Amino acid sequence: MDATVDAPAPPRPGALPPDSPGEDPHRLHARLTARRLLSIASAVALLALTCLLAISLGTNALSLAQTAQILLGGLLSDGLLAEVSTLQEKIVWQLRLPRVAMAVVGGAGLAVTGVMMQGITRNPLVSPFTVGLSPAAAFGASLAILFGAMELAGLGKYLIVAGAFFAALLCAAIVLVIAGLRGVAATTMILAGIGLTYLFSAFTATIQFIATEEELAAIVHWTFGTLNAASWDEVAIAAVLLAIALPVFRADAWAMNAIAAGEETARSLGFDLRRIRLRTAILSVLLTAGIIAFTGVIGFVGLVAPHIARLIIGNDHRFLIPFAMAVGALLLLIADTIGRSLFSPAVVPVGIVVAYVGVPLFIHLILKQRRGAYT
After folding, report:
1. C-alpha distances out from residue 340 to 96, 259, 335, 349, Å
2. Could you tell me if residue 6 is inside a domain?
3. For the segment 186-237, what is each residue's pLDDT rounded down to a tens digit?
4. Closest Cα partner for 104 from 235, 221, 229, 225?
């Protein structure tokens, strides 16, 4: 009797064949690197195009030619000039462009902190929200609102931002002190963060219970997350924090790869895990606090953007970090554009829309991965 032998499944189009005897490992690595760099370049190009579209959309809609004319000004040739008014220029430079810039910087910053915190803890469920930073910021902002920050016209906004920022730093200090007692252990950081998440959420709920109707509305609106009041000063502060943290994160990419292979492997390669975790945690805290203090609670980007990027480009942090930043910026920018355009002139807070946009995409990528479409 002839035995039936199952034929091997055909390779996926474009897939790199594993263990091909005739494939030079150096060429295989070069091809994989080229594909990853192309993915990063494509994401950046898509982000630039999305920024242009986001600036064009709104109650006072602009054409792409008008938007380009306002942004580029004298760089365009006479044949490409579009008619723009002074009002349209003010709308772009004073309202839409700061909002788009904050979405890009904020989304990129939250995504990269998610990547790094998941890396140092080796836990895919960790994000700035799960270690208590976002609930603590909400408590700090709520406390400032309760004590009359809304009544101070010019100073009130900055008091709310300061309250959110310092409350997030306080939460981070508590987590790091608790973790430091156990050698900055990843599990201790996660458990301490979860406990503080519930604690600060309870504090915020207590403030909401005793607040007036006007104060309650302001607190709830802040906790939704919004880019409505974005200004160039806020964008500059968030961008400076990102510029400070990013070179350090990039330098630790090899360490993150080693930690992903196991703590013993990382130690055998000479990495000081305690120092790396402490440095990464401090920078992640400062960057996250500096963003959510201006935008309100946007907890989903830091969790899901790293996963989306990892499913597409892989787990090598040298490429994962820039790609996740582009994904996070795209996710937050698209969510904000939908929120302010779909029901215009009403604006849906970006913290709500980002979950509607990100969850279906995330589930789709997970299902595609199960069928082997992503490596």
Report:
1. 11, 41, 9, 8
2. no
3. 677 778 888 888 999 999 999 999 988 888 888 888 888 888 878 898 899 9
4. 235
Distances (CA, A) of 140 to 160, 166, 352: 7, 7, 21
**Does 11 score more than 80 pLDDT?**
no
Q: Give how many domains the chain has, as a whole number.
A: 1
Token pair 């963060």 in the structure block, residue: 193
Does some domain include residue 296?
yes
Take residue 325 and report the two structure tokens written for it: 């930043």
Could you tell me the CATH number of the domain that includes residue 197? 1.10.3470.10
Instruction: Give the gyration radius of the chain's Cα atoms.
Output: 23
18 in a structural domain: no
Instruction: Give dist(CA 214, CA 138) in Å, integer.
Output: 17
**147 belongs to a structural domain:** yes
Kindly state the tokens that stand for 41.
């370049």
Tokens coding 20: 């091909």
Q: What angle do CA 184, 186, 189 make, to 5 degrees?
A: 75
